[in-house]
Amino acid sequence: MKTKGGLLFTFVLLLTFFLPSEVSHAVIKERHEYERTGNVFWEAQTDEMLVALTFDDGPHPANTPELLDLLKKHNVHATFFVVGKWVDAYPELAHRIVDEGHEIANHTYSHNYDEQISKDTLMDEIEKTNVLLESELGFRPTFFRPVGGYYTDEIIEAAIDLNQDVLLWSWHQDPRDWAGPRMESIAAHILNGITPGDVILLHDGGGDREETLKAVDRIIPILKHRGYSFATASQLLHSNTPSPASS
Ligand SMILES: [Zn+2]
């Protein structure tokens, strides 16, 4: 019995020791560890009065055309993180985004919320949208943004292995428009926190975005008046990209 008990004790001890690593979740490093790769960005480190508007989860048959009209009215270019299944449904909107001088970027094919997504599954999700955009538009996007802004080693590696740069957003520039705040609150959040190099997170897909659209209409002239210009993600983060920022 003594030996059995000893064995059992050793077994339990070993379990305690090894189980946590066996069932451990995805590895997440500090933000600066990822930034050091040169392929992962939250915002630009710059003193230039440049910011980027980014819109996720479209294209949407009602919101996206309205937003494109608005951006045209203000002569501003933005970056659209599109979901592949919606590009499949509304390819003409992907064309319109690019034709009007905006940047298109990859936000997976199915937009599944899954922090524990495997690297292989995510690579399929990214690649399916890349192939779709390439067949529709003739090029692959530069940037990828993970669903929900989740980032783990697996998620970052999946994107980098596919030659995608990863763009999250400035943590102080998420007015949570998807949760349905009034436009005054969205606009105030952006305007109060704005600093050069900010990447602003908004949504044109996923539901009714009237308040987002009204907020965009309000903040653009105010930010221009403060001396800011609007850049696409590539213009903001790859300043050697030879295309001028829109004013
Ligand atoms: Zn999203």
Summarize the entry for a quick read.
The protein is 46% helix and 12% strand.
Notes on the structure:
The protein has one domain (29-237): Alpha-Beta Barrel (TIM Barrel), CATH 3.20.20.370. The protein has ten helices and eight strands. The chain has helices spanning 2-22, 31-35, 63-74, 84-89, 91-99, 119-137, 153-161, 183-193, 210-225, 233-237; strands at residues 40-41, 50-56, 79-82, 103-106, 143-144, 165-167, 199-203, 229-230. The strands form two sheets. Strands 2, 3, 4, 7 and 8 form a five-stranded parallel sheet that branches. Helix 3 (63-74) packs parallel to helix 9 (210-225) and helix 8 (183-193) packs parallel to helix 9. The chain is globular and about 70 Å long.
The CATH class is identified as Alpha Beta
What is the architecture at the second tier of CATH?
A: Alpha-Beta Barrel
Order of helices and strands: HHEEHEHHEHEHEHEHEH
Biggest pleated-sheet summary: 5 strands, parallel
> What is the CATH superfamily?
Glycoside hydrolase/deacetylase
Shape: globular
Organism: Shouchella xiaoxiensis
Domain NodB homology: 49-231
InterPro entries: Glyco_hydro/deAcase_b/a-brl, NODB_dom, Polysacc_deacetylase_ArnD
Pfam families: Polysacc_deac_1
Write the layout of secondary structure elements.
Blueprint: H1 2-22, H2 31-35, E1 40-41, E2 50-56, H3 63-74, E3 79-82, H4 84-89, H5 91-99, E4 103-106, H6 119-137, E5 143-144, H7 153-161, E6 165-167, H8 183-193, E7 199-203, H9 210-225, E8 229-230, H10 233-237
Parallel strand pairs: 1-6, 2-3, 2-7, 2-8, 3-4, 5-6
Record keyword descriptors for this entry.
globular; binds zinc ion; 10 helices; 247 residues; single chain; 5-stranded parallel sheet; alpha/beta; 8 strands; 46% helix; 3-stranded parallel sheet; TIM Barrel; disordered C terminus
